[in-house]
Design goal:
Blueprint lengths: L22 H5 L12 H4 L6 H5 L18 E9 L10 E5 L25 E5 L5 E7 L4 E3 L5 E3 L2 E7 L7 E6 L26 E2 L10 E4 L2 E2 L14
Parallel strand pairs: 1-10, 1-11
Antiparallel strand pairs: 1-4, 2-3, 2-7, 5-6, 7-8, 9-10
Bound molecules: fe (ii) ion.
């Protein structure tokens, strides 16, 4: 019996080739994937706590320099869950983003927006026994990119999740609910329409800290029909 081939789109995952997202044309595979059997080497990892291997968590991106960064302070909180919504503890979530003006600290990012000397834009948190995580940062700005004429990325935070082994690494982007750029963004639109809302954080007044920071909730679901859309390349 011939089984229907698995299509990532069916679970709301973006295809590797999405021509409106121009760089996928050159980098998407031209051949069928080769299955590599996973052994203990791929699916297990060090038994030591992550904080011993990677250093302590960096859960406040606004406190990495002498002064505070410019921008709207925000708290992002949520849980990492499996397909049955069970919590996934001990997952490293790496965080990277541009500053409030839309500029990354990166040699290839030279567009006309200021660097913030008080903002690096990189952090790292680890989920607790309930699968929960939380970090504080500033809301990233939109930035132009060369995908097509007048292309701007919506505000987004890049997230990489790492479980017990490197084969379990998943990368996604968090968007904000009031952003008109999402619907014209080629990267967000590579995700099938029904799944796009899973990448958008939800404003939450209970997470909002009075006189301090706006709060957003963002759960990451690792697999299954409600899985968060993940990318296998960074755009
Ligand atoms: Fe980005």
């Amino acid at each position: 019996m011939k089984l229907n081939p698995y299509r990532p789109e069916d679970d709301g995952q973006p295809p590797s080739l999405f021509p409106p997202y121009a760089s996928t044309v050159a980098r998407s595979p031209r051949h069928a994937p080769i299955r590599i059997p996973q052994t203990l080497t791929e699916i297990t990892g060090p038994a030591a706590p992550w904080s011993r291997l990677m250093g302590p968590a960096i859960a406040d991106l606004t406190r990495q320099h002498a002064g505070e960064p410019i921008g709207q302070r925000i708290v992002i909180a949520g849980r990492v869950l499996d397909e049955d919504r069970r919590p996934v503890p001990d997952t490293v979530m790496e965080i990277w983003q541009c500053n409030a003006a839309g500029r990354y600290i990166h040699v290839k990012d030279q567009w006309d927006a200021p660097i913030d000397p008080n903002f690096t834009g990189a952090g790292r948190v680890i989920t607790d026994a309930e699968g929960a995580y939380r970090f504080t940062t500033v809301r990233p700005g939109a930035y132009p990119w060369g995908n097509h004429k007048n292309a701007w990325r919506p505000s987004h935070i890049h997230l990489s999740l790492l479980g017990p082994g490197f084969a379990t690494r998943l990368v996604t982007q968090l968007y904000f609910p009031d952003d008109p750029l999402i619907e014209i963004d080629a990267i967000a639109n590579a995700v099938p329409p029904a799944a796009r809302a899973r990448m958008v954080a939800r404003f939450d007044i209970a997470t909002t800290q009075a006189n301090f920071a706006l709060g957003y909730l963002f759960d990451v679901i690792l697999r299954g029909r409600q899985a968060t859309p993940f990318e296998d390349h960074h755009g």
